[in-house]
Amino acid sequence: MLDNLDKFRCLKRSTTGAINIDPLQRGGVLTPEAREAMMEWADGYSVCDFCTGSLEGIENPPIKEFVHQVLPEFLEADQVRITHGAREGIFAAMHALCGAGETVVADGNAHYTTHLAAELAGLKVELVPAGEGPHYRVDPQGYQEAMERVMGRGERVGMAVLTYPDGNYGNLVEPKAVSEICHDEAVPLVVNGAYSVGRMPVGAKSLGADVIIGSGHKSMASSGPIGVIGATEELGSRIFRRSKLVPNKELEMLGCTLRGAGIMTMMASFPAVVARTKLWDEEVEKARWFAGEMEKLGMDLMGDRPHGHDLMFFKSQVLYEISKTAKKGRYFLYRELKKRDIFGIKPGLTRQFKLSCYQLPREDLKAVISAFEEIISSHPKA
């Protein structure tokens, strides 16, 4: 096996130059400045050459200023740290703020990593149910009802989590309404903003959150995995507490987090990220236009109406019917889009799929719509 490793020498990506509509990647596309920084700082623990004991204390490059001054202002949080991703931030908050055996109340559209983080932290999960399709809405009042169910069993609610927006449908639950319910019960609210921080103009105080989580590789034009976590002064002192054994290291962060290209790309992209959040209304209008054009072709948008996010979930009976007789079956859509240099819908999906139009020009989106129109018109239905 070790005698033939040539396949690992040149790992090219076939999507280079194509139209990418993958929701996981649209907000993480690197800026030119970030690509330059990535090449400059790509070697191993590159920034550790400048470290005197703590990552967030490095002054040159200006990580200290970024973490302790710039990001707190951007996130409307008292304390901020870099993490390996949104899931690591959620786990750090749960592990630090909740007692063993307590319950986390989370929205029914929460990402699976919320469940994993709770399980790893030794916590239970009580879900606020999402409604039936096509909207799949979560009612803020459901948080009150979920907490009452937990307390009625004699259990303690240690935390509430709101996914804003959720990663399935792009639904936006009113965060202030959830915050008021949580704070009336003295329960801290964590907002998982993996698809909002860096895309939308959001902040912890504006949302009513005690802790806010972001994803650099999903929404902050960063080379991942990388994330951010911001917290109030009170909760930050618990989440970012220092080790008793190694006093200059923070326990939940396991000492240090991103030691290379990830943090440098986040900083290099940051001016562009701040600027683009101010254009969010244009992105929403574009997403609504795109969804309308897709529905004219027989694909049905799920989730909020009017839709408030670039992440969109479509159900398509027409594509599913085509897949019954098309060559390669349910993989036909992926192959047809690939022929037209369009990527981002997972292979094998036809009946339902997610996509994003974030930061794509209208000309590219018109090409995507035309591609779907051509595919549908050129294939017989079952």
Automatic annotation (TrEMBL):
InterPro entries per the UniProt record, alphabetical: PyrdxlP-dep_Trfase, PyrdxlP-dep_Trfase_major, PyrdxlP-dep_Trfase_small, Sep_Cys-tRNA_synth_arc, SepSecS/SepCysS
EC category name: transferase
E.C. code: 2.5.1.73
GO molecular function terms attached to this record: Sep-tRNA:Cys-tRNA synthase activity
Transmembrane stretches, start-end: none
Gene3D superfamilies registered for this protein in UniProt: Aspartate Aminotransferase, domain 1 (3.90.1150.10), Type I PLP-dependent aspartate aminotransferase-like (Major domain) (3.40.640.10)
Keywords of the record: Protein biosynthesis, Pyridoxal phosphate, Transferase
Pfam families assigned: SepSecS
Designated name of the protein: O-phospho-L-seryl-tRNA:Cys-tRNA synthase
Organism name: Candidatus Methanocrinis alkalitolerans
Gene name tied to this protein: pscS
